Fold these 2 entries.
Entry 1:
Amino acid sequence: MKAFLLRLSKRKTALIALAFLIIILFIALFAPMLAPMDPTEQDIARRLMPPGTVNEEGFIHWLGTDQLGRDVLSRVIYGSRVSIMVAAGAVFIGGAIGLIIGLLSGYSGKWIDSVLMRLVDMQLAFPFLLLALTMVAILGSSIMNVVLVLSVTSWISYAKVVRSSVLSVKFLEFVEATRAAGTSKLSILFRHILPHVMSPFIVVASFQVATLIIAESSLSFLGLGVPVSEPTWGAMLADGREYMTDAWWIAIFPGLMLMLVALCANLFGDGLRDILDPY
Amino acid sequence: MQAVIVLIGASAIAFVLLRIIPGDPASLMLSENATEEEIQQMREQMGLNLPIWEQYINYIKDIVVLDFGNSINRGLPSMQLILEHLPATALLVFWAMVIAIVIAIPLGMYAAVKKNSLSDYIVSVLALIGQSVPSYWLGMMLILFIAVNLNLLPTSGYGSWSHIIMPAFTLAIYQLALIARLMRSSTLEVLNHDYIRTARAKGLPEIVVIFKHVFKNALIPTITMIGLQTGQLLGGAIITEFIFSWPGIGFLTVQSIQAQDYPMIQSLVIISAIVFVVINLLVDIAYAVIDRRIVVDS
């Protein structure tokens, strides 16, 4: 752990990216304290005000207001909550499914491996967003359903990486030795092989954060993600699309946040990969 | 054989998807004030009164003859609608991939050859940005700046060359970044091989080493990626088509999902899987053409 932190401290880009992600996490956690206004409070008299406008109460709308007079800054702050929650939930559930299937597939080999890998191939045949859209359309919009759908559509990335890592270590001498010593299969899998597949697994998970945040926003953008009452970056972009020529600020800021968060997750993932898998 | 298994599995997934919809597909097909009798008649017509295994066999029979039933929304055969929208998507994906490949391959190779230089760093950062920007936001920004503010291109629509530039570019950005990054890493890997050292040691000019030896070998993993991505895009250019009102499969998908046109969605899901499998087969063939060792091995 110490060696890992030391190596991480030498990678400035990854560190800056991590710092930004931690800030976003704090913004999401403390949104009620940080947001200057209620993100759902509507005031038609204050609609489409440009960034920096001071309203009659002396309150500054730093990022302007949207078509219903809601404060864009407050909505951007609250929007981070859904993005982080959905990405974290989907990485956790999708990661757990992928890890277990990858371990089973790689270690068991034979027919279990064949069946599981054909399952991966079948799912790969569907475009990611098409599958996610279809499932949300069937299950209905809710945060939990979006998390579930994104977990089910993303587990294959982990499973493939974990499987190939298991294959690369399962015939190594230390595994053979524990096997010869009569250690049970489960113990070999979880105590001896699992630690070796964690590095590539963590790298995939960090890249998945970026993919999932964009996927969630895409679903919300099409009106099929989280219910409309929740402020999300994707839904803000959908609102902003209709007012692009009159009120560019509605669409610019949530889009920039999405891009920055995804970029930082990718930069951090890149740094992690260099540290954990230097070859 | 593997392709057939994938197709059978994919069609089973599509079958299950349509069966887990809350509510009765037969009543969805009819207007809200349909009588119980009409619904029952529709259920019989759709074969929903049969046992589930019989429904599945009929469904497979229909797929084999490419009969996917009618779209609820438009009352036309789903296959006809898909065939009408497919050329627009194919055109868009073709140009997006051309843009991505033509820019990304030289860029990725250049970054690898100049490893750790400023240009390598710039290419890597740009590629990461390309992979992080949500494509629909990029599309919206292009519409705002190029179409609305500068009035250089039409905001959306289909028909002329000027209509295709922005959507193709929007769709290309992610692919461009992905291919450039992959090309960079595969070039770096090839550069470390002994035969490259030998080629240099025997005095070949660097340009010959790069184009004759490195290029071809670094291209192999990139071709797989290009194939996979093309397959995904044919069914997945959903958001780009939606933003630019491009009348392709993606646009049809969003419309069908919004209208809860389940038979249409099911057909789209199956067709995407078929397209994906066919493209994968083509990639395997392309592999064998580029790398003769694969033919010998198999």
Entry 2:
Amino acid sequence: MADKPRIKLPKEAKKGEIIQIKTLVSHLMESGQRKDAQGKPIPRKIINKFACEFNGKPVFSCTLEPAISANPYIQFDARIDEEGTFKFAWTDDDGSVVTAEEKIALKA
Amino acid sequence: MGAINRRQAFLLGGGFVALTVLPMAANAEPSNDAAELIKKFTGGKEAAKGKITLDLPEIAENGNTVPLALTVESPMTAENYVKEVLFVADGNPNAGVATLMFTPMSGKAEASIRIRLAQTQNVIAVAKMSDGSLFTERKTVKVTIGGCGG
Amino acid sequence: MSIRYGSLAVLATAALTLSAMAVFGQEAERKGIPAPPGHVFKTIISGYQFRTKETRALQDDDLENPGFLAVERAADMWKTVDGSEGKSCMSCHGEAETTMKGVGAAMPKWSEKLNKPVNLEQQINICRTEHMKAQPWAFKSKELTDMTTFIRFQSRGMPVAVKTDGPMSPWFEKGKEIYYTRVGQLDLACASCHEKNNGKFMRADFLSQGQTNGFPTYRLRDQRLIPLHERFEGCMFDVRGVPYKPLSDEFLALELYVAWRGIGLPVETPSVRN
């Protein structure tokens, strides 16, 4: 999961505005249900958790199962009451975590 | 997905198509752990119908990538918000799909994900509100296998 | 169609077709572009128009479209030095956004040096081996498909504009012959599905005109980008034929001919298809 996650959210918002956040990461989401050419089961390897926080407070998170399509797309909303930084984290079955940050400013 | 290669999938294709269109397929008793997962999530309490809107295609163009959008009616204030939403699919090898956790900072109890459905089946959502009340909704998605789309 | 899969499957397909039509019926009006005189179609229609609204929505938004993961990967690779010459793509070509504009829309293209047409994948590997002195990328490798997608994407919205005259003419004729030749146990030609039966169901599949303007395409089925010759291979496999090899002269001729069948369609790479 070396690729940079793709994230889309507005650069600024009015106080109290609810914004939409779209995220997409590159991942095979190997379900554990498939077999290789030799008939051996391919072990499960998925992103099992995603979390988004804003200025250190949780906004939205989810746990994911093998029934999530490859290259997981997660879209959700956030209410903006102050300017600050979103932190995003995707956790892989192998324990690795890919993180990203996005800032948002308040519109006058 | 699935533990069969293309050739097997092709040879079996006709049979799969036949299975997936039988009307009973969608209403059959779930063969996986859907009921257990829901029970674990609700603590055995009954979930009421309503509040949840599931946007899913009636027929999936392909079962490997099915867009799913969720909306739960809620003011999403500190006093009254949607805490968690469990998604299960009652015809997959394992019923679990995802559990979404919202906060008042979510602003809206809305989310979109993309899911895998191995066959025609029900996608079931159960929402747990901050006051402990439970709501549920389900939708049948027809999944076809066979032909060039595989 | 006179295809038989066993009576049960036929009945099932009929039942499915009826229920599916309820959904697809609402979207029966498929927009296309007028074909030039002498073309096989009156209206040339992108595969986009044959897909459900959900699939089209995945293509319509550049953030939601998973094909852009490849575009971004290759944008980095474009600037990455590889091979003993110490060059990257950028060393010779500069900014892809300007220098590669229109390149992918005109492929395959005649190569004087090789005295045959080359497609985008082949041209990328010619650059790598001759100018960068780097290893060629294997067909179907993530790297080659990503770079092909990235370069085709620079032509997004531009019309497919392959040349079919002059030295390309015999290749065009060869491609046409392959297009109309029935192959495999199912005894189907490209034309059987994509010319005579587009807009109809074959079993669970809704047939398009088989246009190539969106390739490489993100297939929902495979959950990854599929290069054109892999799709050709897949079609031949599905009719239980023995596919030609990717990047073979046969598939190159077919690529040229099928591109002509979609002449003028806007490039949609990276498209999203079933």
